[in-house]
């Protein structure tokens, strides 16, 4: 399908403006997200609300080493996107082939018979599934559903393709932010742990008049004897020192 969009006709001009508004709203929503699952929910809400003719919207996501994720504007429709109910359906076909899948009337569709029966039972007649490429470890599809056959026109298909491509870039950015936040949090934790253990070593050195390696050995022996982590031993020691009354003649502060 060609992605060429001409704005010569007023209806086409309106469609271009709608698509631009959709992508702008989607960008604003996902830029504000620091959680991947939250970003998927924002994607679904924005698409379902902003694309004319769409009754329901869902996203199917495959992540390496993790169960498939499904987010949908309606729980019943979410079951259609969930591959645990069967791998055959437009979403998985779009993910496997990396091509847009469109069925304008499910009453004439012979592929995925079990999926079609469930979809028609929910009132779905028209469906678009567009592949979403996030990164090397995450693939997915955005799924648009309509009650009326033929409601998802050719222009809606183009919009779905643009939406999927734009969403992939934005979701990749969210994934990068999540990873960066996790790395910063891990670094902060290690720094706190190291500082706490260092304080405990200093306390033992002062009280026993020993070297730093000897003080560390005291902490390790205590950790092994009590079967608790080294950090917790250091934390308990720090709390014990903090609760001690000030020695006579010592200046406060």
From TrEMBL:
Cross-referenced Gene3D superfamilies: 3.30.450.40, Winged helix-like DNA-binding domain superfamily/Winged helix DNA-binding domain (1.10.10.10)
UniProt entry keywords in alphabetical sequence: Transcription, Transcription regulation
Origin superkingdom: Bacteria
Single Gene Ontology MF annotation: RNA binding
Residue ranges annotated for the ANTAR domain, each copy included: 177-238
InterPro entries: ANTAR, GAF, GAF-like_dom_sf, GAF_ANTAR, WH-like_DNA-bd_sf
Name of a matching Pfam family: ANTAR
Protein name, per record: ANTAR domain-containing protein
Highest classification ranks of the organism: Bacteria, Bacillati, Actinomycetota, Actinomycetes, Micromonosporales
């Amino acid at each position: 399908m060609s992605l060429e969009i001409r704005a010569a006709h007023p209806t086409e001009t309106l469609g271009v403006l709608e698509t631009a508004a959709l992508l702008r709203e989607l960008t604003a929503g996902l830029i504000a997200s620091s959680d991947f699952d939250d970003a998927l929910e924002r994607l679904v809400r924005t698409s379902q609300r902003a694309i004319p003719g769409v009754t329901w919207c869902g996203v199917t996501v495959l992540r390496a080493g993790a169960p498939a994720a499904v987010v949908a504007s309606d729980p019943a429709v979410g079951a259609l996107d969930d591959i645990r109910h069967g791998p055959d359906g437009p979403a998985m076909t779009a993910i496997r082939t990396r091509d847009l899948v469109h069925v304008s009337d499910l009453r004439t569709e012979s592929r995925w018979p079990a999926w079609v029966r469930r979809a028609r039972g929910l009132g779905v007649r028209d469906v678009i599934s567009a592949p979403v490429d996030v990164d090397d470890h995450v693939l997915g599809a955005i799924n648009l559903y309509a009650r009326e056959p033929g409601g998802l026109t050719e222009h809606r298909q183009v919009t779905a393709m643009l939406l999927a491509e734009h969403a992939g870039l934005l979701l990749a950015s969210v994934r990068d932010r999540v990873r960066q936040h996790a790395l910063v949090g891990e670094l902060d934790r290690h720094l706190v742990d190291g500082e706490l253990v260092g304080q405990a070593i200093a306390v033992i050195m002062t009280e026993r008049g020993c070297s730093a390696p000897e003080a560390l050995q005291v902490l390790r022996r205590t950790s092994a004897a009590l079967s608790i982590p080294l950090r917790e031993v250091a934390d308990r020691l720090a709390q014990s020192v903090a609760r001690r009354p000030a020695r006579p003649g010592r200046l406060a502060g």
